[in-house]
Amino acid sequence: MKDVDIRTEYVIPEPECKTVNGKSLDFENCKEQEKAQRELCENPLETAGRVEGLSLDPFSHSCMQIRDEENQKGKYHQSLHLFKPFRSSTKQQHPVDNAGFFSFMTFSWLTSLALLAYKKRQLLLEDVWPLSKYESSEVNSRRLERLWQRELKEYGQEKASLNRVIWRFCRTRLVFSVICLMVTMVAGFCGPAFLVKRLLDYASLNESNLQYGLLLSLGLFLTEIIRSWSLAMTWALNYRTAARLRGAALTMAFDKILKLKNMKEKTLGELINICSSDGQRLFEAIAVGSLLAGGPLVAILGMIYNATLLGPTAFLGSAIFVLFYPAMMFVSRLTVYFRRKCISVTDERVQRMNEVISFIKFIKMYAWVKAFSQSILKIRELEHQILEHAGYFQSISVGIAPIVVVIASVLTFSVHLLLGYDLTAAEAFTVVTVFNAMTFSLKVTPFSVRSLSEGSVAVDRFKSLFLMEEFHIIRKKPECSQIAIELKSATLAWDFLNTSAQSSPKMTPKLKKDRHESKGKKGTRKIKQNEQNGPLTEQNGYLLTNSDEQPSPDEKGISLTNPRLQRTLHNINLSIEKGKLVGICGSVGSGKTSLISAVLGQMTLMEGSIAVDGNFAYVAQQAWMQSTTIRENILFNKTYNEERYNNVLAACCLRQDLAVLSSGDMTQVGEHGANLSGGQRQRISLARALYSERSIYILDDPLSALDAHVGNHIFNNAIKKQLNLKTVLFITHQLQYLVNCDEVLLMKDGSITERGSHEELMVLNGDYAAMFNNLQLGDNPHIEVKNKKNVNSSLKKTQDKGQTGSVKKERNAKKETDLLGQSEDKEKGALPWSVYGVYIQAAGGPLTFFFVMILFVMNVGSVAFNNWWLSYWIKAGSGNTSVTVKNETYVGQSMKDNPHMHYYARIYAFSMVAMLILKAVRGIVFVKGTLRASSRLHDELFRKILRAPMKFFDITPSGRILNRFSKDMDEVDTRLPFQTEMLIQNIILVFCCTGVIGSVFPWFLVAVGPLAILFMILNQVSRIFIRELKRLDNITLSPFLSHVASSIQGLTTIHAYNKTAEYRHRYQELLDANQAPFFLFTCAMRWLAVRLDVVSIILIGTTAVIIVFMHGHIPPAYAGLAISYAIQLTGLFQFTVRLASETEARFTSVERIHHYIKILELEASAHIKDKTPPADWPQHGQLTFGNVEMRYRENLPLVLKKVSFTIKPQEKIGIVGRTGSGKSSLGIALFRLVELSGGSIIIDGVNITEMGLADLRSKLSIIPQEPVLFTGTVRFNLDPFQQFSEEQVWDALERTHMKECISQLPLKLESEVMENGENFSVGERQLICVARTLLRRCKVLILDEATAAMDTETDSLVQETIRESFADCTMLTIAHRLNTVLSCDRVMVLSQGQVVEFDKPSILLANENSRFCAMFAENKIAVKG
Questions:
Q1: How far, in Å, CA of 933 to CA of 1147, rounded?
Q2: Span of 289-293, 650-654, 1376-1380, 1386-1390 with lowest mean pLDDT
Q3: What does R_g of the chain's alpha carbons equal in angstroms?
Q4: How far is CA 804 from CA 315, 542, 705, 822, 831, in A?
Q5: DSSP per-residue string spanning 151-167
């Protein structure tokens, strides 16, 4: 499957799919097509409109069947082994698969790992068993996929239910787990209902029967063991099922992402969320959701039993339970409602954060840190409000279980006695114990409802992803075998993203322009997106099919005015012979990139046909890099052939670059290629194509980021020589290369207007000849340079995901030490107490903490008092009152005879009211405190990140930073308060229970001693074990998410090279590597729970035995109080210890956030008192560099070496030099993105190193090479601080020729700008950036190839604007097209971080020995061809 040859006919004679109009299509019977079919239809599509009647072909799932059949000694063969009580098998790799019934149920198979962790005090990834093959994502995803396809086939897309599919996937195991749960419930009910009742009856008898009493104690012990272990079995089954579903759903999701043609409404952030949070939510829904089933059973049993015991009044207490059940459901649903609201706000915050981290360099240069921090803090404030509401409801649901028991008991007993019925200790405490058993369902309800609701949100998101449209790289073959690519009367369209009718100016900017512009910009705009979000798709249209007579528009279901489809290419007729080099040129937005996208299958074919014979290599406009070594980027999963590899390196001029890197081609590439210059990225991308040995090469402006000399070398050696027998489509704006092409296409308005060889087109004397003659005359030789980026070494990639700019070659050394080469630090050892201290401090300090603790103690104390008062009342009995019956007087035995009954009842009721008030106060105070803590942590982390120096962003993958703001922040915001509240409540409750029992039976405390020691040992072992597994889970998640993000960004390239299989395989490896510690972490929790349950069951047994032995020495009322507390202690004890471990694990998120807060150094202050420059500084704009030295980080070589020069006010300077010569470093030094290692920079007499960064940066301006727009309004993008009047803003837009475009938008300046400015073409984005600079009116301006993305006409207009508007500015132009700098006053030539020449261009050109002259000569030769 690795390198499917696309030469073979992947006729899309449509993969046995019916088209919309019902035409069924057949495959030709040839081997390769079967292979192709297997490859491309492996997961047949459910695309709306097109593939509804998709029939699964025979081999589509053969792989799955084989897999299943391997294991088919019967479907449940492996599972049936579980019923053997004990097994000593070691056949399977994972111990869970070798476990017998008892080992599986009690999680004993984990003990060896727990002891290893304790011995080593830590766990490493190699200590953890790899995932069991039965949990592996490969096996399970194939099964889920098969069930989903069957569902689609049976119900069609509209009615298909993913919930039904998941039920089929899990049902057998879920049914078994519910059966185990029922056993738990019945055992948990029988213990209190029958055995405790008998035990208390026995305690109130006068004569003792030791044998009977001990038998009851043993019975109680056994029912509790059965209850505990059957519950453990439920969890064991649920966790395995949940792990399988998570693996299957996430693999299917990624599989789908790899096949997407168009991201449509899904943003990168959303897709990453699906792969992180939503997978987790599915896991929790399966693990906890089924526990909901136990509630009703216990409630019904409890009601019936209490009614037989007490009579009709018992229904009152049961009614409280029945009423609270829906009330709990309602509260849980409300919590979930707020969670959902919160999730969308969180998504927005993370999305905005992602944008800030991506463009941090740019934000710093513009001194816009404050504006962005305000906008994010505003979102955070809204999130805070929603979290607060959710917190209150969550707090209610946490504390409600103990309250319900109290309310039910108070009402039942008070009414029972007031109505004149009698009550004994045995009856009262049996009822209380049964009520306690009934609370299990109430305790689990909030968890279950929340997990099921969040699970259903996740399922909806997965389903919407599964139903999105897929990409097919299938093509009809041209009729003539000599033709490689053939388009006949082809009209193609792009599918828009969210074409909402709202203000998003997506389409509008185009309305104002003539037809020409409208198509044009679309080409540009679309493609930009192409590279960022992966391919765009044919929407309701057709696969590019082979049917020559296309159905009419109506038949196809594409209305020609479909608002989602924007026609871009019109009636294209083109056939390209094999082995030809075809050059494609045209102004921005003329449809060049759309043409190659059509060939790659990324557009919707409206009319005509497309046929291709061959497989592709593709070089995108924005080179896409993987975060692996340079060599792996070039090999792209092909085997290493030294000779071929070295030839490719030489042809792409990479030898010299690799020589400078300390690790050569084994240097790790940073995220988005952050540690490489634009030119290096572009050449590596080209080297990847050359090495791939394909038949058709699609090169989208591959030389734009290279200087003339390197470009010339690559054109002659790589494109002309190495690819001389290949078919090459070569888009370029450097017209000099077209002279040597076999054929040239000139595009305009989405049509091919001129076609022929260079000579023929010159004779024709049309547009092409005019453009070429302009070039020869020396006017703007960059006819338009690149509709996307001129990714060059100049102030590099301001935008490319924020990693630093040009990144000199020397810098690359940096990476081995840090960059992605280094995995994330894993904290070692126990969580330090200081982390809790940090959290308490953030929540308001020790006093607040102390106050909250007192509230918790009073709250639990009020419940304990309530129970104690009941036993005291029962013990008081009749109060020795004399009762006269039928003239006989005797001392009453019944409680109802007590004259103070109303007094007892009033106190009893009052304690309930006090408890409710305390609960409410505690809830409010706690929610406020924890939210204050999470907000302070967020704000402090956010401040530190924004103020961090650029080097931090260079070496830290953005995924790692985002992880702090998304996953870790989510833990601190929602899960941590939820668990901490329960933990504190339960710890106090445990002490309270032991205290109550100890006060009744001091002897009981003797038994507690040895058990406490056992408990300490267990706690020591489990803490290390659980904490280490949680850390491993955190660490394995980052590479997994990075792989997802990287794959999404490189989708076009992955499709073109047909590498989806390898990417899927790598994803599965990373997912399984994460699932292994994650699954063990969840099991480790239950391993501890089972062992703690045994400890607390021994406590129950001890209490029962003491009651038997002390028969007659203690009042039955106190015996009842003790046993009811002992039974309550069982579940509570293990739950508390597990909560403690889990809460500690959750606190690792606080630790990770605090780690950044602690270690991040800050760059210099924004403002420095007494050093603030005058308001009108710089008045003139004179720049003096004195012996400036700069290195990107300590221990790295200098990139600027003793640079000294002076630039006069208002002088226009051109800066030139080869890639890596230090051009961008000058700009970086000027903006102090990196502090100088030596020397000084003085502007108008002020040393810039002594002033605040905001003071400095706000007085400088840069027009970056890659235009950056942010989500927000047009106005926000121009003037985020609202410093300028509307007239000034419109004036700036008018001078940059954007006024007409913006005024056409429905909301004008308030119109929405989409992510990355996606709704404006690259040229328009660049113009907005120029307008932004005009508004700032700075005296010093750096121009970074700023007109790269515009066609000649706009370019000349903008150049004129810049000349006029910035005439009184000092201007530094970083250039690689030498003609741009000829009009400058002086030209500076840099080489290896030093100024080698600095003089007027005319003088340098006159000196034949000058570097500038030599560079210019190379350029001229290139131009003349």
A1: 13
A2: 1376-1380
A3: 37
A4: 71, 42, 16, 18, 34
A5: HHHHHHHHH--HHHHHH
